[in-house]
Design goal:
This protein is of the alpha+beta class and 292 residues long. Helix content is 42%, strand content 21%.
Length: 292
């Protein structure tokens, strides 16, 4: 992965990463970022899995992720897959929204937000051309300056804001297993409750063995791993909002504060208190839940 950081006009940090790797069919690590993330697919056959939906799949598709939103990549065939990620800090997003109010639709965090855009041919060509230029920029190749890279990113964001919500540009599909879909939806609504594999299997309408098998297949992690990371991501958001460590512990479903502190530090490399005091620490570093 190649990476470049920008902070043009003091608007806040923007990180551009370019990845071009060989993959076999399967999933990569479950990941969560502290930044807003816009991913531009430069290969066919690469999907994002987020909540209970599949997004992307075609060259030129754009996937949108809010901070602390769990997701991972799904590779449908063997081959070399390429994509650009644009990570924007919260400060940068606030600055851009102040200058360009239409961008706020891209950075909403409500549950029914749109996670993917598939443009028509002309706009898709513009997206791909800009993304390929940014790939060269991330690799420290080509002639694109930091100011020109920022201009390209802003143009991409404004184009995506124009396309956002248009019926012809919606591109999302449910994951294949209805049992997994019900489980993920239930966790999103009830993550603070006492949840067990048995109770979730009853909600899903299948056996615990079958749910475990399906969940690992479609979501790339065990039910327990997914639930834990979901709670930690919610805890991180509450800590950034200024809530106390003790309050956050119980609000996201943990019953033991010391255990919550140990687990949070394991997942985020900081104690909850440290994270609260330095909410932007390592914001552009993805947190990995597991790898196959």
């Amino acid at each position: 992965m190649e990476k470049r950081d920008l902070n043009v006009f003091g608007l806040g940090r923007i990180t551009v990463t370019y990845t071009a790797d060989e993959h076999r069919p399967g999933d990569n690590a479950v990941t969560v970022y502290g930044d807003y993330k816009i991913s531009i697919h430069l290969s066919n056959g690469l999907y994002g899995v987020i909540n209970d939906r599949l997004v992307g799949g075609e060259r030129g598709d754009v996937s949108l992720y809010a901070p602390e939103e769990l997701h991972f990549g799904r590779f449908t065939v063997a081959g070399r897959f390429r994509f650009i990620n644009i990570l924007l800090s919260a400060d940068c997003v606030r600055s851009l929204e102040a200058e360009h109010p239409p961008l706020s639709r891209l950075f909403c965090t409500h549950g029914d937000r749109q996670n993917s855009i598939r443009a028509e041919a002309a706009d898709k060509a513009r997206i791909i051309e800009s993304a390929e230029t940014l790939a060269l920029f991330a690799e420290h190749r080509g002639t694109c300056s930091e100011l020109e890279a920022f201009s390209l990113i802003l143009q991409l964001l404004l184009l995506c804001a124009t396309l956002y919500g248009q019926p012809s540009c919606l591109q999302t599909a449910p994951i294949a297993s209805p049992f997994v879909q019900r489980t993920v939806e239930y966790i999103a609504r009830h993550y603070a409750d006492r949840l067990t594999l048995d109770s979730l299997a009853r909600i899903a309408g299948c056996s615990t063995v079958y749910l475990s098998m399906c969940f690992k297949q479609y979501m790339g992690s065990t039910v327990h791993q997914y639930l834990t990371e979901y709670r930690i991501s919610k805890a991180a958001a509450l800590l950034r909002a200024g809530c106390s460590v003790t309050d956050v512990c119980y609000r996201v479903g943990f019953s033991d504060c010391s255990g919550f502190i140990r687990l949070f530090k394991k997942k985020r490399a900081l104690t909850p208190y440290q994270y609260k005091q330095n909410a932007t620490a390592s914001a552009d570093t993805p947190i990995t839940l597991r790898k196959r």
